[in-house]
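Sequence and structure are kept together here, with a separate record for every protein. An example record follows, reproduced without changes.
>
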Amino acid sequence: MAVMPELSVLIVNYNTWCECVLALRSLRHYVPTRPDGSPMPYEVVVVDNLSPNRSPEAIAAVEAELRLIAEQQRDAQAGRLILHTENGGYSKGMNLALHHSRGRWILVSNPDLVFTPGLVAKLQRHLESDPRAGIVVPKGFWDPDFSGRLPPNTLPTLFDVLCTTLGEFSRALSRWYQRRLTRTWLRVWLAEEPIALPMMSGCLFLIERGFFESLGRFDERYPLYYEDSDLSVMIRKAGRTVTQVPGAHLVHFVNRSGMSDPALMMARHDASRVLFYRKWYGRLGTWMLAWAKWMLTSPFWARFKKPPPHGPMIDLGESVERPVIVLGRHCEKFLLLMSLDCRFYLSGGVFGSGDRWSPSDQMFANFGCTTFFFEAFDLTGGRFEPLGMWRYRCLSHLGVPMPHAATGKPKAPAASGGGV
C-alpha cells in the first residue's frame, strides 16, 4: 500500500538530461530519513521546460530513474516526468512541479547536482528545530572532493549597482568592492555553525509547503535568474531567515543548462534584473539601472573607463592540461579565488597550504572550455594579503579536449538546469 510522501523533490530540466539522471540516482542512493533514522517517504517531480533536445533516449533515461524511485517508494506516483509544452522560465516550471506535488516539505533542486549522504536529513532537522528559519540551504561545492566552494549569492542592492558601475572608472573602487565581497564570502565559507544569509541560491533549498504557499510561490514574471533573490526578500520581509546549514554538503556543477544557450540565458538574465530592481526599489531602482546602462554604453564616458583586470595578471597561456598556480612563497593557509570575471565580482574559493595549487582530477573534469581567472590571498595568522592574479584559458570541456578551441571560438558540446 502506497504511503503519502512527506517530502517532494522538485526539479526543472532544460537540456540537462544526463545530469538529471545522475542527480536522481544519487537521491535514490542517499534516501531522505526521518529524525529516528527510518526512511522518509518521498516523491520526485521533474518538469522539462521544452528542451530542444527531447530525444527518446534522453527521456527514457530519466523515466527509468523515476520508475526506480517509484518502485523504491512502492508508490506509482512517486516518480513523475512532465514534458512542459512551453519554456516559460524556471519559476513557471517550478510552480508547475509544485502544483503536481503532494509532500509537506518541498525540496527545490537543480538537475545539475549530486546529493550527498545526509544532505536532505540535515537540512530538514534544522528546519524542523528552528522556528525562525524560513528556508534552509547547504554549503555548496563545485566538485565531489568538497574542495571548490561555490560563491555565496549576493543580494542585489542599489549600492551594488553604484559600486559596479563606478568601478568601471576607478580601479581603486573596483578593488575595494571586490575585497569587500571576498571578506563576506570568507565568513560564509568558514562558518561551522548555522548562519543567516542575505539570500540563498536557488540551486537547492528546503522549505515547508504552507510557508512557501503563503509567500505566493515563485514570481512567474522572472524568466530566469533573480527568482531566488526575489524569494529571499519575501522570506526576510515575512520575519524569517535564510539559513545555511554547514553540515549539509552539496555538489553543484553550475549552470549546465546555461552553457547550452548562452545568448538566451543572458537575455533572460537581463530581463529578470530589470524586473527585480523595479519590484523592490521602485522608480529609483529603474532609474539606477538606466543610469548604469548609460554610463557603461555612452561614447562620452567610454574614454574614462579603466578596463579590467585592475592589477597585474600573470598569463598562464592556454592548454588542455590543468593550470599550476605558483604563489611565490609558502603559506600556512591561503585562499584562491576562481572566476570567469577578471574583476572577481563572482568567484568560487579554494583553501589550501603550501606555495602552489593545481586542481584535482575531479575538479578539473568540471572545467569548461573558457578563460578562468585566479586571485590568491595569504590568510596565514589572520592575514588577508593579496599574492597575485593569474589568467588561464582551458582548451578542454568537462574533461574532453577541444582541439578547435585554440584557433577559433569555443564550440563546447551542449551540456545536457533550469529554465533557460
